[in-house]
Design goal:
about 230 residues, alpha+beta, 4-stranded antiparallel sheet, 12 strands
């Protein structure tokens, strides 16, 4: 119930309405490194992340996987044939010990039928994802690697960051490899590594094996904006 109350899709619903949705969901848990679902498998469930972190990635023609999102509790992920996807277009992997609530197609269809505002939010969400995909494609074709890496770090800091008391920086306590960042920015691990090394040298960020910290948000935003005319 606590998780559902924080899902934007279900905002504004009463406690009895949330209880009815909760009754249609099943709880599952995964260890770090486990697959929640794999791209190409039948799209038969939607998930609401209850705790932990999940990495969503999309396979490429060359056999690599491009990271498209990192999820936090309250996020909705997966898809259904009801939403026009016969198979999962992406894979989801637990980055940490993870718990999620799962709902099947018939139960989700019943939720949409009983709660028209939820159905409208689903349409809005699909439209927003399409718009974001177009925007990302445009930025990937025009921005430099440094701009794309900086913009991605800012977005992750806003979504996943925790303030550090010692220096006022923002900590990303997640295993974020150069390959992951390369996938999220449409670049190569080598190019991302060079950018990250320069950002560390300039004391804009710091990083370790399983964490990254934004030390100077304004300078990182300046890098993301690119050179002024």
């Amino acid at each position: 119930m606590r998780v559902l109350s924080h899902v934007p899709l279900f905002s504004g619903l009463s406690v009895p309405q949330l209880e009815a949705i909760d009754a249609r969901m099943v709880s599952f848990a995964w260890a770090a490194g486990s697959r929640v679902f794999t791209a190409g498998a039948p799209a038969d469930h939607l998930y609401v992340l209850a705790s932990g972190r999940v990495k969503v990635s999309r396979p490429t023609g060359g056999g690599r996987e491009i990271v498209v999102d990192l999820l936090t509790p309250g996020d909705l992920f997966g898809t259904l044939t009801t939403l026009g996807d016969p198979t999962y277009p992406e894979s989801a992997e637990a980055l940490t010990t993870t718990c999620a609530l799962r709902i099947d197609p018939a139960a989700f269809r019943a939720v949409l039928t009983e709660h028209p505002p939820v159905a409208l939010r689903v349409l809005d969400d699909v439209a927003a994802r399409l718009a974001q995909a177009r925007s990302d494609l445009g930025h990937h074709s025009t921005d430099t690697v440094a701009q794309r890496v900086a913009a991605t770090l800012l977005r992750l800091a806003d979504k996943l960051g925790q303030e550090r008391a010692d220096d006022g920086g923002t900590l990303l306590q997640i295993p974020l490899s150069r390959t992951d960042l390369a996938g999220m920015t449409g670049s190569t691990p080598e190019s991302v590594s060079r950018v990250m090394s320069q950002l560390r040298k300039d004391q804009v960020i710091d990083s370790g094996r399983r964490w990254t910290a934004v030390l100077d948000r304004q300078r990182l935003a300046d890098v993301a904006a690119g050179p002024s005319d």
